[in-house]
Structure of GDSL esterase/lipase:
Amino acid sequence: MASLFGLFIILCCACSWCCVNAAPAYFVFGDSLVDSGNNNYVTTTARANMYPYGIDYPTHRPTGRFSNGLNLPDFISRKLGAESVLPYLDPSNNGNTLLRGANFASAGVGILNDTGVQFANIIRIPRQYQYFVEYKNRVARIVGRNQTDRLVAEALVSITLGGNDYVNNYYLTPVSARALQYSLTGYTQFIISEYEKYLRQLYQLGGRRVLVTSTGPLGCAPGVKATRSRNGECAAELQRAASLFNSQLRTVINRLNSEASAQVFTFADSFAMNMGIFSNPAQYGFVDTTNACCGQGSYNGLGLCTRSSNLCANRDTHLFWDNYHP
């Protein structure tokens, strides 16, 4: 799976400000794709703090990452020439360690506040932003307000949202409340309008180098295939949802950059990247793009990845680690 993250970083570094000589601070917002362990510090069922999560991490212990080892923020930190930023709620993230940045992401969150309600006390985006303001105040006490503002302006900021608003909201049940309220097109327009507000707020908070990750091919996740696929094909309805979302998100990013008269936001197309892997997995070192490495049931896509789950022998040849996470 490391080759997937390597490819993603190459795409991200098409923007000149990502691949810089001196390591900038790095701030991470979003969901389980980028959560490095904040949910270990809150009372929620959306946790990855049990074996075999972390089996290939340097300590071979679970860290809260929804991965067998490192996750995307770790690989980006390495590309920036820096140590991985710590979860903001990690007690050891204090003093000069804060100057590297922080990870505010929380598994289960979405753009909407009713996304992921089944996970209880996850750290929703408004709260992630509140923590960011708190972070800036803490750093200002160390280096001063002006230097803090400069640190944030020169930092890499990434935000990853959207998938849960479909998988854990609109399509969570056969007929969800949101599906009764909106058509797929109307729902997508609604969540994109809410996402735009968050992106504008991120700019107001000082973000000037913001990497916005698209949603991946939702219909191809083992957890979706297990309930919506007969022969291993990607679920068409969720693929359509992802395409609608990404197209409108790209339009929003172009508009925001035009208003700012600067390349503040960069769109990272994880959907196209992953579909390229599905088309030619061997080119990227993958053998199995259908089944999760860890899980049970059809495509190993049912339920949680636990000690009693099926576990593949070679994690590097599987595109997906568990039911939803590459």
In short: The mean pLDDT is 94. The radius of gyration is 19 Å.
